[in-house]
Amino acid sequence: MSTPDRSPVAAWALVLVVTVATSVGFELLGLPSAALFGALLGGMAHALTSPTPLRVPPFTFRIGQALIGVTIGSLVSLSALTSMGSALLPILAVTLGTVVISLFAGRVLAVRDDVSHVTGAFAMIAGGASGVVAIARELGADDRVVTVVQYLRVLLVLMAMPLVTAIVFHPEHGLGTFHPGGASLGTDLAYVAIAVVGGLLVARAVPVTTAVLLGPLAVAALLSSSGWLGTPAVPTALQWVAYVLIGVQVGLRFTRASLASITRMLPVVLAVIVAMIALTAAMGAALAWLTPVDGLTAYLATTPGGLFAVLATAADSGSDVTYVMAVQLFRLLVILLLTPLLAARLRARHG
């Protein structure tokens, strides 16, 4: 059945309405990266119902990548990372173990004819979902599959975490709250501007595929660690802008065939994600055995996704929030730094 043409104005109106409505709904439900989900559905709403092409200027995708890089970099705390101290080797071992689990899971997914090895690897890599989604296409992966699988993993992690915490560890509640930081609006905006401009200048000078994300991330992390601007954060509105710029462009690339393909792979994806969650929980148990840290803190530190929810749970249960943040950020940074090398190796090996 043919689909009707739609004028560009009507098409953008549809994308905007669906993006806003679903983003607000997802935010009220407490889903992570609600605006990215909403924009993804907004782009899909047009792409799947009309052949009218919508072209988004390439620079907007780079702006989205840069803002996501700054958002990740603003979380980096030098004091938190140095607090790992003597536990660095076990943490490194657990981090590399998690990467190996992710790559094996990606290899299982890539058994399907419609999933490349690069796509499988980055769809399943455990850490920094928004960052991985933002650079997936540049790495040679199908960003549609990566987006759906990455956030499905995050959603399952968020569903499993309170159950595991309550059933296995029986912690007390209401012991603390997590505050992500933030200075005055003017300081936050200055921080974002310096990190984006400085990071994009770095990206132009560094011949790395993912430099548009990693450059702003590095500059933002340096600014945060220096304390020059206090404890700045990326304003929520700018985070939403970043997610929308990424999500809508991924959504517009959907076709009915690609949607059907992703739907067919969901049973396998769900099984692999559940296995990943179980194996990373085992890594947490290993971390608790190798270091003096308690079991709940180790479990939360190795949970593969949902950083802010993990930190909020750690604070509420009285776990070591600094330790949890340090391990989570360490894994996130290792994964984002390894992605260009990993993608190049996978492409060279499997074509």
Based on secondary structure, the structural category is mainly alpha
Low-pLDDT regions: none
Q: What value does the average pLDDT take?
A: 89
| Structure annotation, total helices | 15
User: What share of the residues lie within helices?
Assistant: over 70%
Largest sheet: none
What gap, in angstroms, lies between the N and C termini? 36 Å
Can you characterise this structure?
This protein has 351 residues and is mostly helical. It starts with 7 loop residues before the first helix and ends with a helix. The longest helix has 35 residues, at 256-290. The chain has helices at residues 8-29, 34-47, 58-73, 78-82, 88-109, 117-124, 129-135, 143-169, 185-205, 211-226, 236-252, 256-290, 295-302, 307-317, 321-350. It is globular, with a radius of gyration of 20 Å. It has 15 helices and no strands. Helix 5 (88-109) crosses helix 15 (321-350), helix 7 (129-135) runs antiparallel to helix 8 (143-169) and helix 13 (295-302) packs parallel to helix 15. 74% of the residues lie in helices and 0% in strands.
